[in-house]
């Protein structure tokens, strides 16, 4: 007889615990929106109650909706667009510079072909060349 009442008490406790647990879980997106000062707090709260009656089918979307807003940057889309515009302008400037430098290189190649000089492969000047001993032979001559 005692075990029947004990089982009934445990069953009631579990049912009440689950009931309040589900209600507490459904309110998480609203609490997030309240903390972030979301402009649609009330809509998120009401949609949370609707989601409670639809077995939390809307709940993940409410979570996303609540976390997208931040008070310091809003929805964040304008900042992303501004950054993309800045990057686009930088890329355009760089491509113009590359075209300009490509034209200069072509001019230099044409001038070099007219004068008939071979391209200078050695990038070091003669003053900085050193022999195997580490001495600069041209410095000794000076």
From TrEMBL:
Top-level taxon of the source organism: Bacteria
Region span, Disordered: 115-142
Alphabetized InterPro entries for the sequence: UCP028770 (IPR011223)
KW Ribosomal protein (keyword) present: no
Entry keywords, A to Z: Membrane, Transmembrane, Transmembrane helix
Transmembrane segments: 6-25, 46-66
Compositional bias ranges of the Polar residues kind: 133-142
Pfam families for this protein: DUF3302
Entry protein name: DUF3302 domain-containing protein
Origin species: Photobacterium rosenbergii
